[in-house]
Amino acid sequence: MHRRRSSKTQKQPLSGHKSQTDLSAWRKGGTTNTEKSVQNHQSPDIQKSDSEQDSLQQALSYFEKVPGRVSLRNNPVLQKHLAAVESIALQRGLPPEGFDVLLNVALSGKLADTVNTRLLKSLVPASVVPEDSVVSSVSWLCVSKCSSNIQLLFIRWLITMFDFIERKEQLRALYCVFFYLLQDERMCPYICHLLYLLTTKENVKPFRVRRLLDLQAKMGMQCHLQALLSLYKLFCPDLVTITLPGKIKNFFKNSEGPWKAAINAVKQKNFPVHQPLVLGTAQPQSRKRKWNAQLVVPASSTNRANLEENRVNNADSYSTSQSFPVERLQTFSQLLQNIHNLEFPSQMASVLTNPLLLHYMNCIKDESVHMRLYFWMSQTLQEECPWCVADSHQNEEEFKIFLETVYKTQCFLLEGFPSCEEFLYKSLPLWDGVCCQSQVLKLVSWIPLSSFSEMKPQLYDPLAQLFFTSSLYFKCSVLESLKELLQNWLNCHMFHPELEPESQVHPLSTTLSGLVNVVAELVHFVGRISTVALCLENNSSFLLHFILSFYEIVCDVYLRYNLPLLILPPAGVFYPALLSMNPVNLNQLCYVMYRYRTNLVAAKENERSKKKILQFKISSQTYKEYNQYVIAMVGCLWTSNVFRKDTHPQGLHMDDELLKETAVQEFKTSFNIVYHPAMIGYAVRFLQQAFPGDTTYNFSLIKGKKWNWYLEYLYAQGLKGLKVFIESSINRVSQAPHDKGEEDEQED
């Protein structure tokens, strides 16, 4: 990556031909072809652009030569040029050549504060801000030519435009200058913010730590001071020995207020095409503000100065004393060779799209990297959320792309970001369930494990309120998200039975009992909302599929995840599935009950053999409830005595007198595997194949050997759940024939 020429060397006299060419290139997006200019000169739009170019050219020339102390009142020339700069800057952004002139005049004190304020608020870049222009502007702060209000506004502008600045080596060299400005109480919060962005390990010195501690003793526990001290402590923990808060929700004050609307307008005009974000090794591109170019996450680059040709050509050999620039990181082998010398980019957003940097985050637990990423992501999510910020609805598509990128990053790292957790907890009560629906529910699936008392009011309650009042599709989407959440928790916090429970340290200091309790509360929560949802949606088969998919994970947590927990689905889920008219739901239920049996048998055998599995036992109530469910299933599907044998309080038990009053013939067999509403279609097709000439569809013919044939036919149709349930449970529950079909089978 070659160094761009500095703005000092690029800048020509504004009245000269060279400056005209530069501004023409800016106006036409870099095209300076004379023939095209002449041809397009006939267009009204081009004529308007030419007029704007001329106006900006004249304005820059005027401000470059403006004498000191010019009054805005009764000065039509100044008013005209100031209005031209404002209009063009707020619509299209300013070219790089304009910043040196406007920053110098605004900070030199030649004009009144009213004019200087308007000029600073107009400094919106069309592409980048030259570093030399910023460095020369900082020198004006040292001579006190401008007022404190203008100095403060300039620092806020510098923070807002930080990622537009080309290269930052010279700016970082002024670290001591900015640090000196901490003594100004008004500027202190914003200077801390700027220092936070500029700080590297080399900047952390004992005298600076002492100065920050003195300021904290003087001002009290201020968030901006704590944030900077936290960063210092991460770089040099031996220098900062005081205890600091583990999590600061709001680091710094918002600095970009005066420029945010203009930035959005310029980005919509200059970058109208939405770019999909894909995880990959992106090549360095021009740096734009992290969330400004359609919230496009920039390519990773440390914005270093021009790398010498010998370093560009030299592949991987860096000494331990040299830092390895991110823009040179292209392969996994380079990452391994330079993992301790890697210099992270100044733009933490670029980490999200670089798998090699994400591998680094997984391998090297560098708290400073996590802290910087947490700060940036918290600010971005808070300021760009369409349903939390009044004027952000127009950026919904951009926010979707950004959330999708964050989700992919979490999937890559196999862990959720605390900043996303805070964002969801703050925004879910305000969410309408429609805006960015898919992306928000994906983020929900990566919420880190925490106590139920914290999650209930911030996650479960607002989610349940939306769940009950939204469409069937939304209900299914929420259930899918909660299933993924459970899966992620179990994968990230799996306990190993060969180790002692308390010796297994997990994130958030989660103990085994704490994990069991949190997972159990999630399962109970899904059970409650599923029961209500089935009533609201008339036992929808589509909804039931997602509910049973959730329990396909729950039924296997004992064996698959070594977690001593088994929770059966509530009766409000079990019986609608058992009586469902959809064979997919019935097959799912059979598989779920088969896996529950396998896990319960394993738990019972471990208890009998006195093998201590994590020092926990499955409740006897769970065994009792499982037996009730199995009796009901066998009574329905096989023995045809469900109305007499079902003992569950919410089960299907009915007196014979009541059943006879229904006038249903053969009510006992109404739900076996032949007559069950979900299975009768298979029975019809079986009869068509077994008795091609019989059109009466006499289901009583399915008995004896044909009963076995019918079972094989069902298994061949893909009903594997029914197969494993019958093979594992029927003979153990029913050792003797109980119905006519089975009597005939035994006789044959």
TrEMBL record:
GO biological process terms held by the UniProt record: CENP-A containing chromatin assembly; mitotic sister chromatid segregation
Subcellular locations according to the entry: Chromosome, Centromere; Nucleus
One Pfam family here: CENP-I
Protein keywords: Centromere, Chromosome, Nucleus
Region (Disordered): 1-51
GO CC annotations on file: inner kinetochore; nucleus
The keyword Nucleus appears for this protein: yes
Keyword Transmembrane helix: no
Protein name: CENPI protein
Source species of the chain: Psilopogon haemacephalus (coppersmith barbet)
Gene that specifies this protein: Cenpi
